[in-house]
Fold these 3 entries.
Entry 1:
Amino acid sequence: MPGKTASNMHGSTASEDIMVFAPIAEAVATLLKPHAEVVIHDLRTQTIAYIANNLSRREVGGSSLAELKDIGSLGADVIGPYRKTNFDGRQLKSITSVLRNTAGEPFGLLCINFDIAPIEAARDALNLLAAFQGAGAQPSALFRADWQETVNAAIADFLGERGLAASALAREDHAALVEMLEQEGYFSIRNLVPYLARLLGISRATVYKHLREARQKKLQTTNA
C-alpha cells in the first residue's frame, strides 16, 4: 500500500521538493517489507512528510521532534545505524540520510527503521543450538557403531576449511581428501572405499588409485 503524504492530508504542508524522495522511500520499504518502514521528515516544518510501510503508527503531518532528539547533530550526511524502541516494545535498527539543498543546508531526513526482532530471535535460536555442540564427547563405542557419521564429520571439516562443496570437487580435491582420510587412519574402517566412492560420485578404482598414491607419498615422507 503506498505511503501517505502530508500534501494528501494537509494541503501544501509537504513541499514538492522533499516529495521527490517518496519513490525512494517506497522502493526501500518494498524491498525490506514487512520488516522496515521509511519515513521522510521535513525539517522546515518539523513534521512527517511521508511514511512507507508504517510500523510505528505515526501519522503524516505529525511532529518530527522525537526523531530529531534521537539523531542529534545533522553534521554528517548519514547518521547511524542506531537503536530505537517501537511503540510496541520491538527493537528497531535505524539509519538516517540527511537531505540537503544545493547550498548544503539540511531540509529533510529520510529515515529507515528496520525491525530486528526476527533476526534476534533467529540468533538466539542458533546460539541455543550451538550451546549443545561439544557438550560431551561421543562414546567411542558409538563412534565405532556409527562410523559413517564420523567420516561425514571429517569430510565436512575438510570441505569447510577449503570453502568447497562436495558436488564441485575436482580430481585433485578428491586426491587431497583421500590423503587426509588416510593420514587420519580412516581407511582402517571396513567398507569405507565403496562408501566414499558413492559419496563423491567416483569409482572405487579411483578411490583406490588416490589411496595408493597417498600411501606412496606417506612412505616417501617417512623414508626421507
Note: The mean pLDDT is 82.
Entry 2:
Amino acid sequence: MLNMTRTLVRASLCTLFFAALPLTLHAAHPLVSDDTGTQGRGNLQLELTTEISHDEGPEAEETAGEAAAVLSWGASDNIDVVVGMPFGWYDCSQEGISREESGAGDLSLELKWRVLDVEGRGLSVALKPHLTVPTGDHDRGFGNGRVGGGTTLIISKEGVLGQLHANVGYSRNGYGSSEARDALRRDIWHASFAAGINVTPQLVAVGDIGVETAEEQGDHEHPAFLIGGLIWSVSPDLDLDAGIRTGLNDAESATTWLAGLAMRF
C-alpha cells in the first residue's frame, strides 16, 4: 500500500507540472517576447495559435499541446485590452501509470500600455500588467486554481532591416491545492530577447531566446529556450506563422512545434 501511494504521488506531479504551465499571452506568435505595438483605437485582432511538445526522461514521458484564442482591442492608440482563453491536452506516463486529460485553462486578461515613444529613433517602451482568472479545472491539471498576476516591461527598437524586442517580467502565481503550493514556486521571473529580420515586405524571419525561473521548489536549473520561425503577411489583415522552440537545457522541453494566424478587423 505504501509503495502504491508513493507511485500515485509521483504520477500526480504530471498534473502539477501542467497546472503550473504559464498561460501568458504573446504578441507576435511564434515569439514568446512581446513587442510594444498596439492595435490602434477601435481596432480588433483575433489570434489563433497552437503548440505541441514531447518530452522523454528517465522517470516520465509527456506529450502536451495547447491551442489558444486571443482577442486584442485597441482602447486607445497606445493601449490594448487583451483577453485569451487556452485549451490544453496532455498524456503523461510515469512508472507504468498513465494519465491523459484535456480541457480549458485559465482565462488571461492583459493591458498593454505603450508609455513612451522616442520620435525619430524607432524606440518605444510599454508596460503589460496581466491577471489570470481560475476558469480551468485545476484538479485535472489545467490552471492554477487561484487568481494570479504580474507585469512585463517591454522595450522595442524598429529599424529598416527589422526589429529588436527585450522583455523582463514577473508573475505571482496562486495555487489551489496544498500539494501545488508545497511543490511549486509562486514567484516566477522571465527575461527574453527577440529579433525580426525583414526578408521581404511580406515575410519576416524571427528568433527569440529567453530564460525563466524554474517552477519546482528546489530546482536550480532554470528553463532556457531558443525559438526560430517565420511570419508571413498574406494581406494587411492576415498573418500566418510557424516556428520551432527548442530547450537550451534539460529543464526546458526538447522540442515544441508552433503555428498560428492573426486576423485584424
Note: Residues 1-13, 15-26 have pLDDT under 50 and may be disordered.
Entry 3:
Amino acid sequence: MFANDNLYKKNARDNFWPAQVVFTLVEDVRDLDDVLEDLAEEIREFETEDEEDEDERIIGQVVRTEYGYSWPLRIPKRITGRLVAYTTTVDVQCKWLPARRLEEPYIYIRAYAGKDRQDRLARMIPYPDDDDDDGYE
C-alpha cells in the first residue's frame, strides 16, 4: 500500500523500515496478485464509515496519518466482499530484499489471524530465492 521512502533507496543490510501491507490467509484466491493490488488501492483511499467498528476506525487513522499499526486489522467486507483480508504495518528487513531496496510491489510475510485483533501477527520473511542463511527457507 505504502512504504517508507527509504525502502526505495539502497540500504545497509541491518536497516529496516515500515510498510503498510494487505494480505489474506485464503489459499485458493483466483488472480491473487490482482486482488491484493485492488485491495491496496481501495485502502489507500479508505474512509471510515462505521465509527463503531474499531478495526475500521483504526484503518482510517492509519491511512490519514500514515502512522502504522502493528496488529493486523480486518478490512471491512464492504471492500473485500466474501474474502477475509487484513492490513497491517510490518518492518521490512533490508537484508531480505534482493537488492536491499524495494523493487517489487510486494514482500513475503508469515501471518496468523485469530478472531481478536491482539491474536493476530504478521512479520516479513525472506524472499523464496534468498540464499541468505537466516534460518528461513
Note: DSSP finds three helices and six strands in the chain.
